[in-house]
């Protein structure tokens, strides 16, 4: 895209949000009337050049070309540069009946992945599992718990990345069961995991909090026993934005819940959840299963007055893929991170002053029968 001219009409942030609340047709008319270049007060310049422009903040731009046959959505960010998405007449018809606010939300999902120097793609597997493709801005990548390689590899191929290895959160077959099939034909592919000898194709046994590098990303293994004795979470940051991390929690921490204590004890799991809760609040949480709706139903049962729980339930009704959450969000609605809540303690019948790890055990036992 050429640089924008210096003379630009200005629209206030308040007016921008008014546009976003308009219908699609109103949004087209109002933004095109502003001219080819738009500057939103307090933000960067947005360049439209004769096409409809959605401005979503100071990190990137949406442009929709309405002139056939070039039905395209252009998304531009400082990380990825301009990227074009073609759409069909049917898709255009669908877009045109959305409100501006709905369309902005829809496109923002794609832009968010472009802006994040770490691009993380959830890959649904089996009944409710998630594998993940994790890549840096240079295209160096790993996959997390790729239980079904035949579903994971097409995503890897489409992304055109250089696959370096596998991060394995624990030995259970629904997480590590694809390691051998994926790694064996690919010489040099690393398989990272705890020293648990039950992890298939393991090549690199990690140590607790001993970092290693994958491309521009720094990976910190966090030993989180409880679900299994060898469970490990991987906390990852990228050099481009080291303050914006992500953690892959396997079956230790779910959105709104935690894993069963198959091989651990309540004190063990309490310590592991405390380790995860100590990460920065903006850390994105990528868990191993889509259990969120069931977890939140239990959360509402043990803490019915918690508005954060009811708000998240409503959000999940229109967002069937609930990953990621953040550590900060989990602290507001996940009962297993809220064992000090008087309402939760009352729900599980905790005695006054009873230790939080004991409350956690009672809570998990209650969830097991819920």
What does the main sheet amount to? 6 strands, mixed
Write down the overall mean pLDDT: 78
Which of globular, elongated, flat, extended, rod-shaped describes the shape? globular
Strand content: 25-35%
Radius of gyration: 23 Å
Please state the structural category: alpha+beta
Can you put this structure into words, describing what you see?
The protein is of the alpha+beta class and about 375 residues long. It contains 13 helices and 21 strands. The strands form five sheets. Strands 8-9-10-11-12-13 form a six-stranded mixed β-sheet. A six-stranded mixed β-sheet has the order 14-15-16-17-20-21. A hairpin with a 2-residue loop joins strand 14 and strand 15. The protein is globular and about 55 Å long.
Which labels suit this protein?
370 residues; alpha+beta; 6-stranded mixed sheet; 13 helices; 21 strands; disordered N terminus
In short, what is this structure?
With 370 residues, this protein is α+β, with helices and mostly antiparallel strands. 33% of the residues lie in helices and 26% in strands.
């Amino acid at each position: 895209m050429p640089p924008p001219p210096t003379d630009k009409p200005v629209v206030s942030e308040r007016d921008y949000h008014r546009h976003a609340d308009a219908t699609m047709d109103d949004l087209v008319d109002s933004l095109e009337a502003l001219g080819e270049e738009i500057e939103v007060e307090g933000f960067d310049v947005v360049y439209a050049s004769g096409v409809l422009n959605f401005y979503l903040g100071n990190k990137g731009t949406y442009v929709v070309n309405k002139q056939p046959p070039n039905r395209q959505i252009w998304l531009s960010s400082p990380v990825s540069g301009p990227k074009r998405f073609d759409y069909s007449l049917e898709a255009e018809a669908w877009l045109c009946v959305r409100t501006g606010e709905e369309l902005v939300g829809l496109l923002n999902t794609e832009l968010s992945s472009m802006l994040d120097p770490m691009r993380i793609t959830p890959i649904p597997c089996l009944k409710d599992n998630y594998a993940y493709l994790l890549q840096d801005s240079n295209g160096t990548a790993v996959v997390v718990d790729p239980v079904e390689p035949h579903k994971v590899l097409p995503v890897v191929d489409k992304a055109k990345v250089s696959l370096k290895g596998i991060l394995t959160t624990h030995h259970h077959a629904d997480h590590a069961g694809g390691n051998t099939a994926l790694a064996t034909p690919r010489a040099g592919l690393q398989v990272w995991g705890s020293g648990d000898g039950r992890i298939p194709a393991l090549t690199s046994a990690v140590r607790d909090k001993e970092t290693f590098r994958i491309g521009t990303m720094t990976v910190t293994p966090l030993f989180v026993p409880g679900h299994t004795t060898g469970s490990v979470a991987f906390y990852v940051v990228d050099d481009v934005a080291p303050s914006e991390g992500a953690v892959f929690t396997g079956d230790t921490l779910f959105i709104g819940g935690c894993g069963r204590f198959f091989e651990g004890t309540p004190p063990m799991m309490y310590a592991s959840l405390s380790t995860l809760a100590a990460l920065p609040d903006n850390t994105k949480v990528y868990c191993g299963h889509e259990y969120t709706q069931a977890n939140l139903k239990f959360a509402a049962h043990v803490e019915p007055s918690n508005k954060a729980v009811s708000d998240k339930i409503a959000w999940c009704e229109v967002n069937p893929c609930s990953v990621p959450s953040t550590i900060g969000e989990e602290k507001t609605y996940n009962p297993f991170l809220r064992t000090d809540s008087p309402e939760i303690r009352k729900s599980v019948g905790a005695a006054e002053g009873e230790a939080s790890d004991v409350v956690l055990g009672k809570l998990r036992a209650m969830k097991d029968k819920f």
